[in-house]
Design brief:
The protein has helices spanning about 25-40, 70-75, 105-115, 130-145, 165-175, 190-195, 210-215, 220-230, 240-250, 275-290, 310-330, 350-355, 380-390, 420-425, 440-450, 460-470, 490-505, 510-520, 525-530, 530-545; strands at about 10-15, 45-50, 60, 80-85, 95-100, 155-160, 180-185, 235-240, 255-260, 295-300, 335-340, 345-350, 375, 400-405, 430, 455, 480. By secondary structure, it is α/β, with parallel strands linked by helices. The longest helix has 19 residues, at about 130-145. The two termini are about 20 Å apart.
Length: about 550
């Protein structure tokens, strides 16, 4: 399929999430690194921010022998880098850039960005400056590379991910036009902002103007750099047909190539599922002061802390409805509902650690028996507020017990001390009722680990499932794709509660069939199935530099 397409000699990929696990883009890049590494070897080079140059980065293995000439040339231009390898499958080369020195040039850089590209940085705030200085440094690093003998006369592709790298990509294209540029938006900044500000994104979708909404929502700088980068790149890409529609409307630019996200299970050894289930149930039991039986049905949701967009509000509403239905129809059943969402964590709960050391018979319910860690903003946290508002108190007569794990599960959280995928594999059902989800890695990950899931048709993954199967998917297909719009909040929650109840009461054989269907579905969304789209993007971009 790709034999007649132009291939680059070198690929540079820049992202804020290279060796920096903060969101789904980390999964995109790290999970496909090995398949590109097999094709391009060490000519595949990732560029990320050196967030804490003086601290150890578990994702980065420094190797000072790599790219010595480039490192020297970059230093002469005031760009300080560390070279090494990303500690993911394939171990690709990674460059971490110390972008802090560029803050001194910030005003000059923004002025040039306005004059050259029309990027408006005047209303910048928050993380815009930090990301832009990294972006600029990354672009200038690749410009330095083009002057090196190893890279001269070579076909080079520079792929920039999200608005955080758009500025540097444009400067690179202006100063080294021979480099083929790809700009990838995984979610438009203004689309996410519309959704996150409780506006009706879908009901009035065709009436939204991206520039106008950016002004209304104080998103001018991020929207400006993203929109200009989309138009300026040799090849503009996004992750789903769903997001392509959004780009057409809000960025006024259709994607040249759509790059859907694949996923494959890690080759690393997994903890036994029985062990992971025991840890989860024992921790919950220590919180609520009630022993949860081994056959407790475990439900979970997870993702970055994007309350409305990820559908955490609907998830919690569905749990309240599920608990009420179980009291009537199967009061003897027990459900543990996990919420694995990073919040503003302070520390592991000391009273919970003490409780976990006690014999089971001596445990009593703790205050706030629904959270494993202390938060800095407990009373202001929206998830905590919803749990309290719905009276999900984990009392003895509540069939559904809720447990918020407000931190990344990296094996070092201080309470569970387990990896995310170990916790995922211990679940019986996953629920991701997304309102705004350009792709949706969490349901794909669940399916890859053989866990049936519920998602919505407002996620790119959900739409891909329906398109792939040719019908509205149900849990028997491995993933139930439910309709969601701006007006069916409670109806959706009721539907999720109903499907969950059916699965809780299902026979072991039916549950097992759903698990097999989930794994089969994920088998059609591997990187080897989707990587050909990247070769199309490389060819498209390279054709613009001839």
């Amino acid at each position: 399929m790709t034999q007649n397409l132009q291939k680059p000699d070198y690929i540079f990929e820049a992202s804020w999430e290279v060796c920096n696990k903060v969101g789904g883009i980390y999964t995109v890049l790290s999970s496909r690194a090995h398949i590109l590494k097999d094709e391009f070897g060490d000519n595949l080079i990732f560029i990320g921010p050196d967030i804490n140059p003086d601290k150890e980065n578990a994702d980065f293995r420094e190797d000072k022998r790599l790219l010595r000439s480039l490192k020297k040339a970059a230093a002469a231009e005031g760009i300080n880098i560390r070279t090494g390898r990303w500690a993911v499958e394939g171990n690709p080369i990674a460059i971490l850039i110390d972008f802090r020195p560029f803050f001194e040039q910030k005003n000059d850089i923004y002025s040039r960005a306005w004059n050259l590209f029309g990027v408006n940085s005047l209303q910048a705030y928050g993380d815009y400056d930090e990301a832009s200085m990294f972006s600029y440094a990354a672009g200038m690093l690749v410009k330095c590379a083009t002057a090196q003998d190893a890279f001269k006369e070579k076909r080079i592709v520079y792929q920039a991910h999200e608005w955080m790298t758009g500025l540097g990509m444009m400067f690179l294209k202006a100063e080294a036009p021979q480099v083929a540029t790809i700009f990838t938006t995984h979610a438009t900044s203004i689309g996410r902002s519309i959704a996150g500000n409780n506006k009706l994104l879908y009901k009035y979708f065709h009436g939204y103007n991206g520039d106008q909404m950016a002004s209304e929502l104080s998103m001018e700088a991020k929207h400006s750099v993203e929109k200009k980068a989309a138009h300026y790149a040799d090849c503009f890409t996004t992750v789903s047909s769903f997001t392509d529609r959004e780009c057409r409307q809000l960025l006024e630019k259709a994607a040249d190539v759509v790059l859907p996200n694949g996923f494959e299970r890690s080759a690393r050894p997994m903890s036994p599922v029985a062990q992971s289930r025991h840890i989860l149930l024992d921790t919950a039991s220590a919180l609520i002061g009630e022993v949860l039986p081994a056959d407790t049905f475990i439900i979970s949701t997870s993702g970055r802390n994007d309350y409305r967009c990820k559908g955490f509000d609907v998830y919690l509403e569905s749990l309240a409805q599920l608990s009420a239905r179980l009291r009537e129809e199967a009061p003897q059943k027990r459900v543990l509902a996990l919420i694995e969402v990073p919040c503003w964590v302070k520390e592991p709960r000391k009273d919970l650690l003490e409780q976990l050391r006690k014999p089971v018979k001596e445990r009593k319910q703790l205050p706030h028996p629904f959270i494993t860690h202390e938060l800095n903003d407990f009373l202001e946290d929206r998830i905590v507020g919803t749990i309290r508002g719905l009276a999900l108190w984990n009392t003895d007569d509540d069939p559904v017990k809720v447990m918020l794990v407000p931190c990344y599960l990296d094996g070092k959280d201080g309470i569970l001390n387990m990896e995310y995928y170990d916790a995922l594999a211990a679940c019986d059902l996953c629920i991701y009722p997304s309102y705004y989800e350009p792709w949706g890695y969490t349901p794909l990950e669940a399916c890859a680990y053989g866990i049936p899931c519920i998602t919505t048709d407002l996620s790119g993954f959900g739409q891909w499932v329906d398109e792939t199967l040719g019908h509205n998917a149900t849990l028997r297909d491995g993933a139930a794709v439910l309709h969601r719009d701006d007006e069916n909040y409670f109806q959706l929650a009721a539907e999720i509660a109903g499907i969950s109840l059916e699965q809780i009461l299902a026979t072991p054989q039916l549950r097992n069939n759903c698990k097999k269907a989930a794994a089969k579905l994920a088998g059609q969304a591997r990187w080897q199935d989707f990587i050909s789209q990247y070769y199309k993007a490389y060819d498209f971009a390279l054709s613009k530099t001839l």
